Structure formats: structure tokens, C-alpha cells
């Protein structure tokens, strides 16, 4: 924990301190008061809204109920669907998410050195914390954590245990904490069904740029590509991909390299599924969803020609939801492709089928209802 911030508070008229844990990037709270089962939801809401964090010393299950009560109070002020244009709705939605996080993250829990929670009726979260923070135990110090972040760790641990079914693999992928889970199957299906470039016959090699869980690399391997180099700059993603590929028996076929975008050399097939929304992440974990100023998208397109072998193809897997939200136009995307010296061979489209497509209460429903996910086959 060396280098992590320390938080301070007064408890029982004595100064206290602990390490601050926040993998989500949440800043340490400047003011902390101790709270327990006697605190009402209204009182907690007033303190949290004013910026005061609450260090919970009561029953763990009561802390969960308090968090739910705080969420209900925050959500009463959430924007309603259909009241604005899609672009306005997106920005209002992001603002509402920020306000929600600002308040809900103020409910804190203590963690012992071994990641056990010293509260009544607390679950055993040691394994979930170890997967996110690394091993705890002797030599470590007690710390504080937002209950909301702890719930995220527990949820990620459950995903990692149960896995995500992937029809294209007839198997499961097991995401790690902080690595985007392949819960939207349509983009995986596109990579599984698009015709492979003829140039693979001479050199059966593919690059998977920003591999994440390794799911697209695994799909390409199962389709018969002999060698695949999968890259990711996130150490968590690299470890996750290696574990998944080993579990699928593909470790010899797929090499995982920690790198920003392209590995060395060139290949007849290069696949990339960048984050789909060109917006600023509000936490470290949101980089799987938001691509600030389309930096990864532009980097992939700008470097693609230099890494394709003659007759090769670059597959860009991208949703058009950014266009429906007014964050990027189709003309801007086409200009990026043209400026990179690339041409479009063919585009394969699919409509998403996740539950939000039909959820009229979703603030972004208007954009989600018309969203299309595409695989752009690009060549020099």
C-alpha cells in the first residue's frame, strides 16, 4: 500500500487514520464522521450531499439498506427519458451519474489488514478484495473503502467465478475486476461470422488490439487462425486474457503482449474493438467504455496501414451509438478512415439485443433503440 493516501478522522475523541483504498479512482474524503445503526437515512443524505463521508460502525446489512435508501433519494432527481435530445440526455445522464456517485460513495466501511470487514453480519470479502488489490495480510495496515466500491468488487468476483457464456466459443469467459466483460454478444458474433481474408492462407497470423478478456483472440483461434498476438496496455487485462486463453486450451496459439495498440511486425488480419463512446471517463474503470477524444480509435486507424501485410484486412468493431448521442458523426469516422489511407471493403451490421434496447425508462433509450453494431472490413 506504499504510496496510497491516508485518511484521518476523530473517533471517541481520539485522532484516527487508515489507508484509503479506491481502485475506481475515487478521491479520499476530506471529512469523515462515524455513523452506526442509529443514523437515519435523511440525516445520512444531508451529510453525504454536503460532502461528509460516513464511516460505518454498525451492522453490515444495515449499511447496505442505508445505501439503498440514499440511492432512492438521489434517483428522485434523475432526468426522465424523452425530455431532451439524445445528446442532451447523454450529458444530463452523465451529470446525474456523477451526482449519484458523489453521494453514494460517501458511505465507508473499515477493512482489516487481511481484508476482513470488522462489522456484524459482514460477508467474507477477502478473496474479492485480493483479486482487485493483491494479497493482504501480515505487514498490511487497516484501510477504509466505499461500500459502493466493495459491492463492485463482490460483483466482479461473482463474474469471475461464474463466467460469461459466449455462444461463439460454446464456452465461458471469466472477466477479472476492472476488465470489460463480453456481455454483449453481438460484437463477438460479428467477428465469428465475417469472412476471413484470403491473405491468411499465406501467413495465418492475426493481431487482436486491446484484447481485454481475450474473447476475440479466442474466437479467431477457434476459427483456425494459427497464430494470434493479443495486446493490451492494462496489466489486469493481460493477466485476464492469459488466464482465459489457458483455460480454453489456446495458450500455445495466442500470445498476450502488454502493449499500447500494435505489437511489432505486420499481419494479414488485425482486429480492434475500441471503447465506443468518445467521452471522458470519470474513473479508472470507465476506460473500458469511454475513449477520450476517440484516441484509441484514431490510434488504431492511423497505425493500421503500417501493420497490414499486402492483401490484409483490419476489422474495426464499433457501435454507432456515439453518432446517435451526438458525440461523433459518421462523417468524422469516415474522415478518420480516409485520412489513414484506408478503404472500406465491406461492413457487416447487427442490431443489439440487450435489455436496454426496449427499456423506455432508460435516459438514453432514444439512442439505444436505433443503435447498430458494425464490423468494418478495412484495407490499404
UniProtKB/TrEMBL annotation:
Occurrences of domain Methyltransferase small (ranges): 205-319
Keyword Transferase: yes
Organism listed in the record: Rugosibacter aromaticivorans
Descriptive protein name: Methylase
Keyword Thylakoid found: no
GO biological process: one example: methylation
InterPro entries reported for this sequence: DNA_methylase_N6_adenine_CS (IPR002052), N5-glutamine_MTase (IPR050320), SAM-dependent_MTases_sf (IPR029063), Small_mtfrase_dom (IPR007848)
Keywords associated with the record: Methyltransferase, S-adenosyl-L-methionine, Transferase
Sample GO molecular function, one term: nucleic acid binding
